[in-house]
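On clarity, I found the account of how folds are encoded harder to follow than it need be. Since the whole study asks how a given chain folds, the encoding of that fold should be made plain. For illustration, here is how one protein appears when written out as sequence plus structure tokens:

:::
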Amino acid sequence: MSELDSARNGDDATAESVAARVAEAEECVADLRDAKQRLATVESEIDSVGEDAVVDAADAYRKAIRLLDRYEGSATGTGDFQAYVEFQDKFLGLVEGRDDDTPASEAFAAAGERLDQRRLSESDFDAAREDLEPAAEYVDLLDRREDAEEAVAKARRDARLCRRELDGEIDERAEWLAVGEADLDAPVAELTDPIEAYNRAVREEFDEFYASASIAEVVDFLDRAEAFPLVEFRSPPRDLREFAAESPDADEPVPTLLEYADYSGSKLDHYAEDPGLLQTTVAVHRTYLERLSGEPLTVSLPPPPAAELRFRTRERLSLLGRFADEGTIAQLRAVRDLSRREDYRELSRAARAHRELDDDELAAVRSGAAEAELERLRDARDRLAAELDGEADG
């Protein structure tokens, strides 16, 4: 594939990602606007009647329907006369005497007039429900407002989440855009090759030290490493320290002791001088011991800033003499000297770009598409933020 084709493919891939994110933001804006408009519409309807009047009418309607449902079986026909009296007292007390200028006053009056008779039937109750239907509008108004408020709250939550995701992607893209603006043709190998060579050497030497030195020597090395905070070994557990200092078996290498820890008690008696202590200490800390490696002594790629690299190599040089040969130590000194190169910052930025950005991202940076996409994301975020803050037009 030619460099031009690679750039086009990279542009297409990142453009699709940005388009999807922008479309999501625009959908959130549209949903929030729609929800806010629905709420404004129903609130306007309520305001045109009056909040208190709407609430009063809705409350009266609900109570009336509950009375109809409760007494329909007992207050009709030749049923319970006491129930009939109770129903008449409660229902007529509820619907009569409402001011003519209150919402649905005619509906309540009609229902009261229909049921103000000596004998009631189920059909009277059904007809009263129909009479009350105009008052149901006010219950519906309040329900619609509650639904609209919930819709606005959900749309705001979705929009805030979308904005956080946009912020994260904007930060990420701004970061890799800055990284990608490094000189991608810089001779990065002059920086990375010495670091990789040292890392290989120190891993191998630590593995040899781990395999051949006594556990007392390994634990002593780890204790020494605690004085160097930029060399991040985990501290040995206290009982493992005590074993290394006091056990007669502490002159054995770690792999040998781990092997012994798997032996049965009778077999271990032939190999260890203190089998019980070995099994209760080494076996318990098997995971810690097996995970020990020379990784904390390596130098990261891409490498840290020059001053930090000098600090890190200084601490490692103080420890390498415990197990490494002069060749590995010399390699670490060569890594330290890299930090004094005039082009160190340029090379480290280029190394970071090659390591952290994939081909599509690099292609987008080279073509200028990454910068344009970043602006699209920022514009989408700003529109979303404006809608959330109530500052958007329309």
User: Anything to note?
Assistant: The CA atoms of residues 75 and 83 lie 5 Å apart.
